[in-house]
Amino acid sequence: MSAPVKSYAAVDLGASSGRVMVGRVGPDSLELGEAHRFVNRPVRVPEGLRWDVLSLYAGVLDGLKAAGQVDSVGIDSWAVDYGLLDADGALLGNPVHYRDSRTEGVAEKVWATVPAADLYARTGLQYAPFNTLYQLVAEQVTGAGRLLLIPDLLAYWLTGEQGTELTNASTTQLIDPRTRDWSYDIASRLGIDLGLFAPLRQPGDPAGVLRPEVLEETGLREPVPVTTVGSHDTASAVAAVPAAAGERFAYICTGTWSLAGLELDAPVLTEESRAANFTNELGLDGTVRYLRNIMGLWLLQECVRAWGQPELGALLLEAAKAPALRSVVDASDPVFLAPGRMPERIAEACRASGQPAPRTPGEITRCILDSLALAHRKAIEEAQRLADRPVDVVYVVGGGTRNALLCQLTADACGLPVVAGPTEAAALGNVLVQARTHGLVGDLADGRALLTRTQPLTRYEPQGDTAPWRAAEARLATW
């Protein structure tokens, strides 16, 4: 009798696109295919930058229809943003985009009530101007009956049931990473009503079944359960890092953002960690994602958009020929957060720091990739020191695995081998959690072992020594 194979729909929403992937999982098999991909295009309206969440939901429904009959559905997305519902469960307005300007200056107001050091000691979250906590203080929510983070909002529309998934909740700056529960003290001091949030859910918990109207629109047969996964896409991506049990590894989740860090058993809440702007987000199976946010391939995506969408392969070939480390920028600088004029802003940053301004698309691309590799190096070195956890290898997962030049530069900068893959890490992590609920996959180590056996991986060995990178890092530190 053949071993059972089950199919799982992974709804994976990124900042620029969404996709519905189908994972077919057996006891020793894992195949992932794309059912539907759709654009995630934010809209600027007079009141600010908003997510077109109705278009995203339509894309999810189209994707489930294209996926065909599945055994379960899981949803992950970017973090921090949310929708507000009235007492009857109706959406009050399009969710605000985290790149909207409404949180400018809000952090200083928060710190006047809860000093930054105290906030970090209680929540362990890095400073980012768009953290949910700052958004809620800026919005001063009134008239809402419920707040649902983006994946939970979509799950609610699919099932009619409300919940707040823990890994994503940990990005709100309202969770205590030691207790893995709400930080009631912080919320109280800032006048934030935690009653707005639905009850916390863990990855693997049931999140309801598809409503009859959803079944009718997608052509699926009942019952189709929705399973809670690591609904922060980074939590799902880290779950799909194909590291061996006991291996000393760092990870970099690459895409619009680069999230570089370590997987730990407990948070690091020291003042030194806060000063280095590391975050302690919650992962699967009691783990902590100790990492730093780096601006990531957003820099290149914005440049490519400004240049009229040139072919990326040719652009990378040109970048490979450009002088190495001629000019670098701080890839974590908030100055690059907003969209628009990215090539000019990168050139301006280089001029302001006394470096040659890159001029051609190839030179600007090389500046971006060198800067990202340098930021990866710094984050991984500092994470090791702050957590007292040495590493032997760096795993790169996500969209950046397609960028061989970035992977090689990261290996060179870190002086460590880089293993690149899988590309669709968030979707695979999503699928693995669903498969666990059906008993097809065991713990986190079992899932990672399955990925190693079934997914294509590429290894990059460091070339040369790290002296030029150390020099560039020292140069950047003086500006």
Structure, described:
This protein is an alpha+beta fold. It has 18 helices and 21 strands. The strands form seven sheets. It has a seven-stranded mixed beta sheet with strand order 17-18-16-15-19-20-21, with helices on both faces. It has a four-stranded mixed beta sheet with strand order 3-2-1-6. Strands 4-5 form a two-stranded antiparallel ribbon. Strand 4 and strand 5 form a beta hairpin. The radius of gyration is 22 Å and the shape is globular. The termini are far apart. 51% of the residues are buried. The mean pLDDT is 96.
Short descriptors:
four-stranded mixed sheet, 21 strands, single chain
Please outline the helices and strands.
Layout: E1 6-13, E2 17-26, E3 29-39, E4 43-45, E5 48-50, H1 53-67, E6 72-76, E7 82-85, H2 106-113, H3 116-123, H4 132-139, E8 146-149, H5 150-159, E9 164-165, H6 166-169, E10 175-176, E11 181-182, H7 184-189, E12 200-201, E13 206-209, H8 212-218, E14 225-227, H9 233-239, E15 249-254, E16 258-264, H10 271-275, E17 279-282, E18 288-294, H11 298-306, H12 312-321, H13 342-352, H14 361-387, E19 393-398, H15 404-414, E20 418-420, H16 425-437, H17 444-454, E21 458-460, H18 467-477
Parallel strand pairs: 1-6, 9-12, 15-19, 19-20
Antiparallel strand pairs: 1-2, 2-3, 4-5, 7-8, 10-11, 13-14, 15-16, 16-18, 17-18, 20-21
